[in-house]
Write a structure and sequence with these properties.
There is one protein chain. The protein has a two-stranded parallel sheet. It contains 18 helices and two strands. The N terminus is likely disordered. It folds into two domains: about 190 residues, MFS general substrate transporter like domains (Growth Hormone, Chain: A), CATH 1.20.1250; about 190 residues, Up-down Bundle (Growth Hormone, Chain: A). The chain has about 400 residues and is mostly helical.
Length: about 400
């Protein structure tokens, strides 16, 4: 039986018009740059995971255990996000959580031991969880105020930040700039950007807070199915974020410079797809895109597993990015329109569980990799994505 979500009426803008709307609206641009801030911080960190893994002499399972500090931070923070946003406002929460995230990424990259690395990743998880909900809420507030579609473009800005961060890391690794100096420079630049964006973010009209919007809700069947799809895609994104460089370096023999491009190729494909999303989602339908996207993502990762050659693996991660690109924007928007659940509560609940896939997926891959090899760890993600494609056919969004 299909589970149906009533869809709000929408127009079908052209690609040019949707991009023009996004980039010419100051509030939309500001929120999009907040998305970029998060991914630049995370993208800079993940490009140096192989360096930290070697420096601290971590095994695959050891790295997986350490990386679990981020989802632990997320689990503790996400049930509180609705309460925090209801009292501070989404725009102010964006500003404060972005500041904390910028500083917190300096801890794991400079960690002299595992304990400091765990503490740093825990704080990264706390701040990233709060920022994730706040910036998506701000994007929805801008859409509501101006009656425009910008959610996919905002997620495109996230992917753009990840791509730029990965490419920059690859260049700096090639010229032997230390990871510590790289992350310090990124942090300073993002802090300046965040401060510059604060006045514009403050002008975004927020939806009046309600007592229910601050609560964490038990998901109904529709939200549960959406959460599973979100978990699957988030695991694919997490695999590219945390394991693409390690897989390229250790399983294909790629140099550190080439290995750093894995997440860059993933992000490039995802960026292109998401900037097209606000035009093509209304045209082709969200349900079809969810199903086809999951299949494309699974096919790309399977290609990377079956043909462990650097160029082919890069192409596989690009397909993974293309397939995943529009699923998160569709589900984030849909989670705020679940019948019987307040918008902010639906978003916070969906974000909690889907972000678990993003952060907890990589450690799970690490455990499987330690026992059977990294190929099997990534293969688990392929299976989950295929299940997501099947479930997508049962949900009308």
């Amino acid at each position: 039986m299909n589970v149906t979500l009533d869809e709000k009426p929408s127009t079908t803008p052209t690609l040019f018009r949707s991009l023009q709307t996004f980039f010419t609206n100051p509030q939309a641009r500001a929120v999009g740059l907040v998305f970029t801030t998060e991914s630049l911080s995370l993208g800079g960190w993940v490009a140096h995971i192989p360096h930290v893994k070697e420096k601290l002499h971590l095994t695959d399972a050891g790295l997986g255990m350490v990386l679990f500090a981020m989802p632990v931070g997320l689990l503790l923070m996400n049930p509180l996000t609705g309460w925090i946003i209801a009292r501070l406002g989404a725009a102010r929460t964006c500003f404060l959580s972005a500041l904390v995230l910028c500083f917190s990424t300096l801890l794991p990259i400079n960690a002299p031991n595992v304990a400091i690395m765990v503490m740093g990743l825990f704080v990264v998880g706390l701040s990233a969880a709060l920022l994730n909900v706040a910036m998506n809420t701000s994007a929805a507030d801008v859409e509501r105020e101006h009656k425009i579609l910008i959610m996919s473009s905002c997620h495109g800005m996230w992917s753009l930040g990840g791509m730029v961060g990965s490419l920059l890391a690859g260049i700096l690794i090639a010229v032997h700039v230390s990871p510590s100096i790289h992350m310090l420079a990124v942090t300073i630049a993002l802090l300046l950007l965040t401060v510059a964006l604060r006045p514009i973010l403050a002008t975004i009209p927020a939806q009046p807070p309600t007592e229910s919007s601050a609560a964490f809700v038990k998901p109904n069947m529709l939200l549960l199915l959406m959460i599973f799809i979100g978990l699957a895609v988030a695991m694919g994104e997490g695999a590219a974020l945390d394991w693409s460089a390690v897989y390229l370096h250790e399983s294909t023999g790629a140099s550190s410079q080439i290995a750093a491009l894995g997440f860059g190729c993933f992000s490039l494909a995802m960026t292109i797809g998401r900037f097209m999303g606000d035009a093509i989602i209304p045209r082709f339908g969200a349900k079809r895109i969810l199903s086809v996207g999951s299949l494309v993502a699974a096919s790309g990762l399977l290609l990377a597993i079956l043909v462990p050659v650097p160029l082919v693996v890069l192409a596989g991660f690009a397909l993974l990015g293309a397939g995943c690109s529009l699923i998160a924007p569709i589900l984030y928007t849909a989670s705020m329109r679940v019948p019987g659940i307040p918008a902010a509560t639906g978003l916070a609940t969906f974000a909690t569980f889907s972000f678990i896939g993003f952060l907890a997926g990589p450690p799970i891959i690490g455990f499987v990799a330690e026992a059977y090899g990294l190929t099997y760890g990534l293969g688990l993600v392929v299976v989950v994505l295929l299940l997501s494609a099947f479930i997508s056919r049962k949900v009308n969004v």
